[in-house]
Specification:
- One of its GO terms (molecular function) is ATP hydrolysis activity.
- With 280 residues, the protein is of the alpha/beta class.
- It folds into 2 domains: 201 residues, Rossmann fold; 70 residues, no CATH class.
- It is 32% helix and 27% strand.
- It has 8 helices and 13 strands.
- The strands form 3 sheets. Strands 6-7-8-3-9-10 form a 6-stranded mixed sheet, sandwiched between helices.
- It is globular and about 60 Å long.
- Bound molecules: adenosine-5'-triphosphate (ATP).
- Adenosine-5'-triphosphate binds next to helix 1.
Length: 280
Amino acid sequence: MLSIKKLHFAYSNSPAVLSNINLNFSTGNIYGLFGKNGEGKSTLLKLMAGLLFPMTGSCNLHGEPTKKRQPHILKDVFLVPEDFELPSLRIGQFEKINSSFYPSFSKTQFYDLLEEFGLSPSNTISKLSFGQKKKVLIAFGIATNTPLLLMDEPTNGLDIPSKSQFRKVMASAVDQGKCIVISTHQVRDLHSLINHVVILDDSKVCMDLPLETISENLWFGMTPKKNLEDVIYTESTLGGRAILARGERDETEIDLELLFNGVIEAGVKITESINSETHA
Ligand SMILES: Nc1ncnc2c1ncn2[C@@H]1O[C@H](COP(=O)(O)OP(=O)(O)OP(=O)(O)O)[C@@H](O)[C@H]1O
């Protein structure tokens, strides 16, 4: 669906934010996009949405460059940004004005989602809190039913019950015709939601794998492994020492936070370990 090839991007004369990025995003998947602060996650999402343009390389949706901003391409992508300004309108008015850009927009779905989030179409947006405004955008984004839905830190500003609501709402929004990409630092908010991990580090993609491949090849746990040679990365936690090790075909639940820290600290060892297993 969306294909990024040899993409380079820098802001004016600054060093490259993204360098030689190659990624493919396909329908039926929910991608988790992770990276440290300033690694270029928001920049990548904006490039995907056609809001920024690659310096070299390409970013194509349905084979056409998003940078051309053609209406028949833009109708198929919606970005829920991290920071935003919304007009001082009632939610219902906002919906009437903006829904016309998205042919598959469902007003019923939007209103149902608003209700789920405890909001009403008669609410005035400027009188809402940041978290409530974010809920309006999340609900609107899902209701656009665009084949590509991009979300930048969607759970930032949401309270604890709303984070569970977010997971529930997202799970109901997934279908085989959609591709969803969610960038976040709140990895626990994506628990059991994503099925593919993309990690950016040092301007590059350092992991791009389905969760299935990760769980087949890596072992996550708290108990010390007998065979210390298998251990790739460890870190202290309140409950003891968390361990990331080479898999033994006994699948364990993926700890996304441990995976992220492990990839940043011991990336090559992890990639080599997965490659050697998958090529065995
Ligand atoms: N408009 C801009 N002009 C110049 N530099 C920018 C601009 N926006 C972002 N940057 C720089 O580009 C780099 C990547 O920023 P970006 O916001 O994409 O990172 P991020 O991974 O989303 O970060 P975070 O996790 O902190 O949200 C950072 O070094 C940032 O300072």
